[in-house]
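Notebook entry, structure prediction.
Reason for the run: the old model in the group folder had no record of what sequence produced it. Starting over properly, with the input documented here first.
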Amino acid sequence: MIILAFGTRILYLSAPSLWLDEAVTANIALSPVTSYIYFAKGDLHPPLYYLLLHFWSFFGRDESTLRLFSVLTNVLAGFVLSVLVRRMFNSRIAVLTLLLFTFSPFQIRYSQEVRMYSLLGLWIALVLLFVWRYLTSKRWPSLLGYVLSSAFGLYTHYHAGVFLIILNGIVIFRLYQIERTLLLRWFLAQCMVFTLFAPWLPNFINQVRGGGITWFPFHPSFPLLVSPLFSFLWGDPFLSKLYRPLKPIFLRSAEIGSVIPWIDRLGMAIVLTFIVLIIWKKKNELMRLSWPIHFTVLLLAGTIGLSFALSFMSNIYGAARYLFGVSLIFYIVVAILLTALSRFNRKMGIGMTFLVVLIQVFMLIAYYQPRNYREDWRGAVAYITNHSRPDEVVGFHFDQPMGPYLYYSDGSIPAFGFLTNGELATSLAAINKDQCEGIWLFDYLAELYDPRGLVRQQIVRYGYVQVWHHEFNGVPLTLWRRNLSLQ
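New structure, fully documented this time:
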């Protein structure tokens, strides 16, 4: 199964070009060690992944080699996950968990990205393994493994902290039940984790204060609450596909349009209340479940709930990839449910398992289709290189050339950022003064960085005319020339 997981992840590994976040990561990791921490601070993430990728890049700097690091860490996380589940439950649930992990389009997608999510999953899998070994053996090497894995997780992605908060609550409750003398040792372990992370703490505080752009506005609703769970299994969640066509029906009425967010929240409150009532009614039966089931379900529900709650301050829930580590726990819970269903009704359990995996395979086939690749920066830069003329430049609605262009460009064509702090930069005026004949303008994220359209307005004032436009899988590119006769 591990070999199969590796095979699904290296398939078409270099087919899509690096998208924005990947290219930013690659450029940071490929920079000198003396400067990559400075760049890491600007990316709003801890530095460990960039450091490891920097040394990994000695094997090569192409897309396949850089992405292979994420592939290997993801496959290793799957192996650790199977060992953990076998220890917690049995081989049957372990195999089923690994099956769900192997064919998950969600896992495969982010295992093929030059980002830190796969590495985060590995640290969380190791944290769970060491914690479980400690709870069962009470030996200090397992506790030391937990300390190191937790610190590495925090240095990889801050969402590890959300996971550790919930994990600590569950472990403290368990130790209080079985052996209170171990609570001091556990507390000292947390002090060690904090001490290891302390050198980066000032940077973390500055990054939190700096905030950053909210790419996904947080609008709490029941579909948003459960959509990551669908993503973990099948990639793009089915529920959102059903919800999006229905929502405009209600929004057509201007009178009730402002009420829609409250309808969402009311619906979510009703559903959650119903779930709580069911749990309360069945509390005696639920209490009789084994401790491993309690541990897994509480960890999943607690991390999801805390992440959702924190999103009211800063949205960490709108993008399922931030919950990448939680997905590993979700596969365990689904495997438990499918196994329980098989014991209740063997045919129904087998049929449901087959259906879940079959949908995964179909979604995975769709994921591999070229039309579903995101942001073809490689194609856009290649087109400019092959069709540009002398005395032409490349421009961006940004304060500098964007990461993907820097990664793919050979530097033969001058490139500039046309905005500084939301206002026109002097570079555009300088280009006009030099009588530049053509401007290849990337309109990528123009609605975000240049909502007033300042760059386009100024280009038109300078006498440039749009002569060509094309979108490379979400990367719009426009060619402006001084007059149409130069075509």
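Summary: Residues 106 and 480 are 39 Å apart (CA to CA).
The old model has been moved to the deprecated folder.
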